[in-house]
Amino acid sequence: MIPLYISGCFGILHPARGRRGALICGALSDEALNSYRPLVFLAEQLAEAGMPALRLAYYGTGDSAGDDEEANRFTQWLDSISAGVAWMREHCGVETVTLIGHRVGANLVSRAACDIEAVDSLVLLAQISGRHFLHELNLAARISQRVWQTNHRVDDGTWFESHGLRIDHATRRSLNALDLSKLPGRPAAHALVLEAKDGPVARQVVDALQGVGTAASLEICEGLDRMQRDSYEAEVPHMAFDRVATWMRSLPTPSDAPCVSGLDGVASLSLGHACETPIRFGPDNALFGIFSMPRSPSPDAPVILLASTSANPRWGNSRIAAAIARTLAVDGVASLRMDGSGMGDAAPNTGERGRPYSEAATKDLLHGVAEL
Fold first, then answer.
1. Sign of the torsion formed by the C-alpha atoms of 238, 339, 65 and 322
2. How many CA atoms lie within 13 A of 30 on its CB side?
């Protein structure tokens, strides 16, 4: 796994030498936390099948540059997908790219594909339209308010905020209109729609894709919904991922070996006041983190270790760990936000899901301290 940045977007490349590449785009909000680790295993499986796979965080999400206060985030998300495809074609030598999207990410990749010639196929995992996604966030926010007896407003007239997603009204309107039945054209020649159970919504998605000329098929894969559980419970749907790899191998792809450009070292992200660098550390370099070094370090300040909550990846709920690290850097304080075993981008052999608040997790934190 090779960490890198593309147009300010954080990504992990799982290299292989095939001519077909896979760009994997996850969900938004807290759903992105819960499903992050399973998508690591999807990318690994595709790479083992000979297809380079790139997992990419949209601009303004995860460890990418950008923040919630920026406008036009919907356009930024689509631009992130386009940049990822272009990067794969240039640096991985792939000729065609399959876009893989999870939940609302399935609708985002479908919309982006309408404007990307190199994309010939889509894999849509448990897709949900933008309108239904926002509706679910509204319901979740109301439940939280009732449980915790808070009066936080989901929408204050300018911003919408719920469960890790904060967007302005223009972005909300664009997201609300995001629907596979309203695409401006054919997104790709082929599409595989995977759902946990059959139903009218899944059938409507396939009908909509077929209506614009896409050869779309629907398959039901038990367990697909379990990758959306809380991060410490989320499961890897191996049967569904096996089906994805098999289907992608069946697509027409040039067989000549590509000329892969060299990827020297690990890229860093310059934020002006700080530089963020992905690092591996611990036994066999199996643990992962993002080290934030201020441009003007304070000579008397300690360094800070930011541990994950539950089994979430290192940036945390609502990107709180990334926000803390970047705020600390303004004051000259260096920090490391890290993934323990079975979390985020820790090596796959550390497990499919983390064990927070365990003795093993405590040992991982001690390795983070030693690295600092």
1. positive
2. 17
Instruction: Report pTM.
Output: 0.93
In the chain, which stretches have pLDDT less than 70? 254-266
Encoding tokens for residue 141?
Answer: 């926010």
pLDDT of residue 261: 52
Please say whether the dihedral angle defined by the alpha carbons of residues 360, 361, 364 and 366, taken in this order, is positive or negative.
Answer: negative
What residues form DSSP beta bridges with 13?
A: 2, 54
Write the DSSP string, 176-211: HT--GGG-SS---SEEEEEESS--HHHHHHHHHHHH
Q: Residue-wise over 49-74: b if at least 16 C-beta within 10 A, else e?
A: bebbbbbbbbbbbbbbbeebeeeebb
Q: How open is the CA angle 58-41-130, to the nearest 5 degrees?
A: 35
Q: What is the pLDDT of residue 253?
A: 79
Across the strands, what pairs with 61? none
**Residue whose entry in the numeric block shows the structure tokens 């450009």:** 261
- Give residues with Cβ within 8 angstroms of 368, minimum separation 6: 281, 282, 287, 289, 305, 307, 336, 338
Which residue reads 């999807």 in tokens? 42
> What SS3 class is residue 148?
helix
pLDDT on residue 151: 73
